[in-house]
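Example 380.
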Amino acid sequence: MTGANAFAVDYLVESFDGTGENTSSNGSYIGLDLPDWSIQGDPTFADGSLVFINETEEGDEFGRKGFALRSVGDFGSFSTILDLTHLDVGSFDSETENINANSSLFFLLRFGRGIENTIAFGIHEYSNLPHLDDDIEWNMSISLGGRQNFVTIPRGDQIQIGIDFDANTNQAQVWYDQDGPQGEPRTYFRSGTLRPSPEGDMTVEMSFGAVDGGIANGGLAAWSIWPHSVTGDFDGDGVLGVSDVDLLVRGFESSSFLLDLNSSDHVDDDDLDYWIHELANTYFGDSNLDGEFNSADLVNVFVAGEYEDAIAGNSTWATGDWSGNGEFDSADLVLAFQDGGYELGPREAVRSVPEPDAPGVAVAFGFLIGWLLRRRRFVA
Ligand SMILES: [Ca+2]
Ligand SMILES: [Ca+2]
Ligand SMILES: [Ca+2]
Ligand SMILES: [Ca+2]
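Predicted structure in complex with calcium ion:
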């Protein structure tokens, strides 16, 4: 762990809220957090985002009506996330009813000029794709190193989309989250390999484009990118924290290569076990991740008040779900006490001494259950 550093040194974040110190490269946009953005398409800062409204504009030669792009240097292995709001890429000019109309949002990372060096995904609406349920779905296209595929995703005017890249294998993977960090988990798509090896400067581009009567409106609400400098630091804040555990647990059963810590091609409780024991060097039950499992952790989770509550799937690592199924119940307590770290102090300090004997654990567990039953009566 890197201690008090809030973010890794080369973590880049652009809030698009209009209060930053920088001006875009063409001088038109003041209030950006990062320098050197090239912005076209006459967007405005509104509601904490940079909003593109493109109904009446003519697109450029690529059909782009508005875009923001900048060079981002060489990050090695990295993750990047784009938050979108006010999103509408699914409307058409009903006057034209042109069967070739289409609307797109694109999020691209280019490592060079060729498509084999590009990660691109877009959200689209094509008026000539009748199989789509227009009211509830969008098409999403994914291009990883030149290999394309299409999926459908639920519509939503706010959406979070991301890219993970492993510079060691040149693997790239994209995901989307229709309702941000809470609610439904991220959906990860199949990963792909970029060819040849990416070199030099990388460019990020977020663009809204449309042709023949298509409409593509939306707001850029935040963009960030960070290198994978700490294994298991999935949110990029430079430390192993409870939000990283939550991201891991919410990725159970997904195909995320970033979360698959033990390279089993599957994200599951073995990866959680690896994160807790090998990366964070602590025990199950350490709800505040301070490196030990003691009474403070139990107080925290019982104060949170989710033990065997009636709300499905509401619990997290910090509120007592140590097994990763979204609930805090007796199975989590059993797991934590079987892991054997209760009141042993930091894990480093006990690795060279014998495991605690079973009666000691049983006594601690019995004490806990008594305390728990008293507390539940008190709460009721
Ligand atoms: Ca973290
Ligand atoms: Ca795994
Ligand atoms: Ca603790
Ligand atoms: Ca649980």
